[in-house]
Amino acid sequence: MGYSLETTNESTNNSSRTTYKHVQRVAVIGAGVAGLQLAERLRNKSSLEVCIFEKTSKVGGVWSANYADFGLQVPKELYEFPAFPYPKGTAWDKFPKGDQVQEYIEAFVAHFGLNDVIKFDTSVLSLQKLERGWLVTHARNGCDEATTEPYDFVVVATGMYGGASPHIPSAPGKEAFEGDLLHSFHFREREQARGKRVVVVGGGKSAVDCAVAAVKGGADEVTLLFRAAHWPVPRYILNLIPFKFATYSRFGHALLPTHHDVSDLVWWLHALLTPLKWLVWRLVELIFRLQFQIPGEMLPNSRIEIDVFTGGQILTYEARDMINAGKLKLCRDAIERYTPTGIELQQQRGGRASIDCDLVVYGTGFKKSYDYFEPAVQAALQIQRDGLYLYRSMLPVGVPDLAFLGAEVSTFNNILTHGLQAAWLARVLSGDVALPAAGAMQRSVETEMHWKRTWMPPTSARASIQQLHMPKYHDKLVEDMGFAACRKSNPLFEAMLPYNARDYRALFGLPDRTLWMRLKTAAVLLALLLPPLLAAVACVGIYLLPEEPPSAFAKDTSGEAANMDEPLVARQASPVRAGVVRHRVRAALAAAYRTL
Ligand SMILES: Cc1cc2nc3c(=O)[nH]c(=O)nc-3n(C[C@H](O)[C@H](O)[C@H](O)COP(=O)(O)OP(=O)(O)OC[C@H]3O[C@@H](n4cnc5c(N)ncnc54)[C@H](O)[C@@H]3O)c2cc1C
Ligand SMILES: NC(=O)c1ccc[n+]([C@@H]2O[C@H](COP(=O)([O-])OP(=O)(O)OC[C@H]3O[C@@H](n4cnc5c(N)ncnc54)[C@H](OP(=O)(O)O)[C@@H]3O)[C@@H](O)[C@H]2O)c1
């Protein structure tokens, strides 16, 4: 047993393929939604021993503790475990707050009995590369003694936005400042702002949320200090259409800057339709400007279809209303230095040279550290100024027996992305998914890197950003696993309806509702043959039918999940089982759908 780089003499090139036959023991670092979903998937492989190291006393990662009033920015159906829908019997909010998301995550852990594979209050301190696998050094909190153990494979699931690595930009004079300095992660209660003059630094989601919380907490004065404004996305476009129809559908995806991985036909279509795409986005900007009544100093410089790739923020109107009411001040500038009583600004715009304050909250994001790797491994990872480029945003081509799960990827539906990554990685480790040769993986990584660098904003996280290109990323993972990427029941839904975790349930052994959806579609088509009034009534009736199929129409795949050697999806069966011809027809249809 052991890591193997099997050398295959392929006719076209001499290349090496990575296999994981040696893997018996897997160490996962982090019990957030990424690490937990991987443990759930790996537990399906009885031969693999999994241990999650979690440095806090709780599961949930960012959801176990964060800034005042934090919560989901998306409705709950867009933040759902694909293997575990929100349990019935609890009145979940449409936009759950942090404590509800945490409750849901804990329910996932209890349902799959994962607590016994987690070593809580235990930090991984270093990873030392062995010829085969890793030596993992970990220590219990407050304990001087560290333990070192061998593992065959290590998965880093330490997150993108964890409190362990808050980014606080330096500025001279900090020591002399007589007020308090906090990162957003430590601004836990609104009341920390009560009676204070507060400056919140940053233009991202955390900064805006903290500024709103400070106003609500009874601060005397709150200023949002930002160097660049970003486009806010409303929960409902024109106060009518849920944003998910634009951002999570294939139609919305087709309006984005063209992905590199498209056919020639699709590329030409994109090229031809570029002026139309451009016009649509200008219209979107206009709508959002009006909806948020964006003041001049908050108007972003970058186009919205590019700006959403710096993070993206879905906002309520709270900040807008506070700005209009004069409760939240705006200042587009940056800190030059601290004084004992406040901050001096760099540009001194609007006649403001300084701001007196008692509390500065940094909503300036998070930074990464790879210090737990030896220098040789850090070099082999080829960490770039814009991040860590990995095969399928998970595997470093030059460092075997290592994966990053959730830690080097960011989408608009992270919990689903992590779920699909976990399913993919579990199948790679079990040998169900064969990796391409190292050279091909490296080429894939470089193609993505060059493509991103041609248009995506140059942030330190660019390598991990998928954001609204997530449909393409999810498609790749699903296709690698041998399933069709298109998961809706008909081409219209495929193009127009938002994608969410429910579309992938069957991959995780949950009942498949496709037949039920198809029946509903057929009923709508038949209803359209009726006179208009009757047709309308029939369509409303069909719309009101439950989303979940009655048991007679549900294909139960749960039994299949227990045995991952069997295909998990019945309606999109594996090529081996259903025959190559059928698979090819499906693949051709899928390609046609995507072209649409
Ligand atoms: C306030 C907030 C709101 C968000 N809202 C959304 C949203 O609406 N939609 C969305 O898609 N995404 C959202 N996100 C992004 C969110 O980060 C992801 O959705 C997801 O929860 C990340 O999970 P994770 O497991 O990758 O990382 P984390 O949740 O960060 O978990 C990482 C875990 O690793 C542990 N750890 C770190 N280092 C070590 C170590 N050395 N040893 C042992 N353990 C370690 C940490 O303690 C932590 O528990 C939000 C993020 C924040 C901060
Ligand atoms: N409720 C939610 O769903 C929720 C809540 C919070 C966070 N999140 C997600 O978590 C991620 C992190 O969000 P975040 O807001 O914490 O971080 P972020 O998106 O990385 O934003 C950091 C902000 O800090 C600014 N900044 C960074 N360095 C600076 C410096 N040296 N001086 C001045 N300003 C500086 C950045 O400015 P520039 O823009 O100029 O670079 C940016 O506006 C995002 O993906 C976000 O969507 C989600």
List all distinct small molecules, including ions and cofactors, that are bound in this structure.
flavin-adenine dinucleotide, NADP nicotinamide-adenine-dinucleotide phosphate
Class based on secondary structure composition and strand pairing? alpha/beta
Name the strands of the widest sheet in spatial order: 5-4-3-9-22
What is the CATH top level name of the largest domain?
Alpha Beta
Q: What about the largest sheet?
A: 5 strands, parallel
Strand content: 15-25%
Overall average residue pLDDT = 88
Q: If you compute it from the alpha carbons, what radius of gyration comes out, rounded to the nearest whole angstrom? A: 25 Å
In whole angstroms, how far apart are the ends? 47 Å
Write down how many β-strands occur, each being a DSSP E stretch of 2 or more residues.
Answer: 24
Number of structurally distinct domains: 3
CATH topology of the largest domain: FAD/NAD(P)-binding domain
